[in-house]
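[job 0412] stage=fold_complex status=start
inputs:
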Amino acid sequence: MITKNNKDFVQHAMEFALKNGCNASKVVLYSATDSTFEIRDKKIERLMQSDEFSLGISLYVDGKFGSCSTNRLDKKEVEDLILRSITATRYLATDEARKLPDASRYFKGGNNNDLDSIDPDFNNVSPDKKKELAMKVCDEIMGKDPRIISATSSYEDEILNKYMITSNGFEGEEKRSYYGLNGGVSIKGEGDARPESSWYDVSVYLNDLQKEGIGTEALKRVLRKLGAHKIESGNYRVVVDNVNSARLLSPILDSLDGQSIQQHDSFLIDCIDKKVFGDNFTLKDEPFLKKARGARYYDNEGVATRPMTVIDKGVLKTYYIDTYAANKMKVAPTIASASVLTMPGGVRNCEELIAELDKGVLITGFNGGNCNSTTGDFSYGIEGFLIENGKTTQPINEMNVTGNMKTLWSHLAEVGSDPKTTSSYRIPSLLFENVSLSGL
Amino acid sequence: MLGTLAAPSIFARMPGEIVNENEKMEEALHYFSVEKGTIQKVLAAALENGGDYADLFFEHSINNSLVLLDGKVNSTSSNIDFGVGVRVLDGDQTGYAFVENVTPEEMLRAARTASLIAKSDKKTAPVNLTEKKLTHNYYKVGKDWQEYEIQKKTPFIQKLNDRIFSLDKRVKNVQVMQQDNTSLIMFANSEGVMYSDYRPMVSLAAVCIMMDNGRTENNYVSRSYRMGAEFLTDDLVETLAKEAIRKTSILFKAIKPKGGELPVVMGAGGSGILLHEAIGHAFEADFNRKNISIFSDKLNKKVCNEHINILDDGTIPFNRGSVNVDDEGVDGQKTYIVRNGILNSYLHDRISSKYYKVAPTGNGRRESFRQTPIPRMRATYMEAGNVKEEDIIHEVKNGIYAADFTNGQVQIGAGDFTFFVKDGYLIENGKLTQPIKDINIIGNGPKALADITMVGNNYKMDNGTWTCGKDGQSCPVTCGMPSALVSKLTVGGDN
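[job 0412] stage=fold_complex status=done
writing structure:
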């Protein structure tokens, strides 16, 4: 946790920077406490525990910018670090775009306590309870099928505290808790193959963590992979399940980033208020959802967040532009990055989307690949299932999906109703038309 | 806890190889302000619940970076990371804790937490610590980063930007990043081994963004070595600048190929990503010890053509993946993982070498004091064959030549691996023809290895900024390869 002494230390670092040549400064202190219990074949394989701190200082020196960070919270050492970093910063070129945000844009509420982002019982979970939770996941797998080679499970938790101040008046404190439970299983497959799969849940409150069924689901997911092979190359109707759909959104978020726009490293330049994607693509940023991972009142600059429509029926409505990128481009800043993303409007879940298809492919996993940030051209490895007559049939693997992000999202036929709420990207299952898959 | 640090100022000079070898350990102990007696007590506490083995990994790292945007070197950052990790092994079970403070009280607290993995009455005799003299130094520093001021670095960064712009009028933006890191490691274990290692690392990278007739393309070039400031030279700047233009401008001519199963000629150098993903990870012994690798039953069996030798090497001077000693006290070494087509050795850490009853191979590596060591690759490459590259290409009627890569991934048990080809060529009737770009290639490790039918005589190490991720830990690695023909892989593309 961050104590009064910690806050005084942060304040001292700020004052020291300002007294020694900085015109402005931001200081952030992080503290985290973590524990992990890993089980393999019902035996503890690894237990880990840690407490850690990190202090980060942004230095604005006569129109020049530098930063430094350390986990050594010693007054003399931090002062030395600041002095050396100021000296180094003076050797840089002037960059007048480097400024703190306008103070009027800061969040004024002080903390995030009413977002329910921290479990008050975090410190009351005993090591034995943590081990028991992880062991139970393993129990659900072990001995349930003769083809099982190895079963693993893990419990992990973290409490994260962040305290941030700026020299033009921002002060904010965030506390977040996190719990995770994971199950994994490897089985004997065809030949030498040992297919693996896993399942997990994460939550902000321990009471909300799924404690039963994780091992069972992991086993189910690996058994259904048996007999996988590639199918004919072609253009297919494709359903991407809600565990993997956010992967297809990430390149779009990267291209909405202000610095990417400013550097011409984006395939979405000059697209505001333009119809870039299909009618079925609406994306919202909802930063104030309670108990949601990613929920927050302010971004990493201290700027107050707000609910936003990012894409409205295929029309791009906003970029994520921080103060630096805004000053560079001479445009109004928005928010530095996304908080909680949602795609509203879905009425059918993954199974119901599949049931509509005479023939198609369900993607249940990506394997590598990349996306060209300036063109939106992508190519990813995939695994999943052939869909025939509304049902998944043949498991498939060793195939690629290739295309262009603008084209893909223009071919979004339907949005599912089943977002996985464990992620800050709450993206449901998605149905796309005319997607190029390479196999045989 | 604030204001209670026992170590001297972090800005005291780290003791590197400039000190007398005989005084190295004393220098390190003095530097971390830790006495041998304290280390012995902490190791004893770590084993008080009966573990088999314990070690302490002290680390102090200083990382400096500079960024050029929009034509000017206009951002710098420095990071200091300091702490000690305490590991206890009991059979194949691991207890681990770390603290960011090296007071006896803090270290004892970590040791007692890590000790909870064991539960037996076994008593361990007090440890008599002896310094292990490192047999080689694969990264001797000429100009120490600690003494190389920022004003000596910025001209190289500026020159790289200016040179890229000077080479082609289509250049729209350039971003340059330079990063140097110096780590002092001090290690002690319950077998009485102590050592210290001074580890430099540097990288210089540029993103080149070009516009041509309304189209925009970008590409990335980099070099990285375990090296001091002698790394920064005009020759390096010139090489990277020309490479940035070549690799970006070719993309304007490139297309996405038609997808499907095709023969693939892997160009020399970065094609080592094939080895890293297709087989390297699956040869890491933790996966095999747990019987979850597709190669778990293949030790001493033929896995590919008898003329193929594949190595994982921690001894290449200045290589990004080299280690004088790994992160659990084993000398860096050169390991034949495939020799004459036979799977010769897994890549071991301390736990797996004990399991397999073989000597460790020096692959026990960790990202920092915050993590436990696990088997990791170093520099993974294939030895040269005896065929000219043009003769390999000549063999292919309809296929792909893969030249540059960005990233890859593998499923250890199923064996399916991928790598992303940033640029390459179509091969038509034995000749390179149309440039191609931005395609993923997927295959299966054992099949791909068995399908390597020709190996070139043009071995090349790729010294880019390769970073391998595993179990949430990042590790610097490299890869290399001569040109080689894989008779069949699944190539992404249009239909």
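[job 0412] summary: Residues 150-167 of chain B form the longest helix (18 residues).
[job 0412] exit 0
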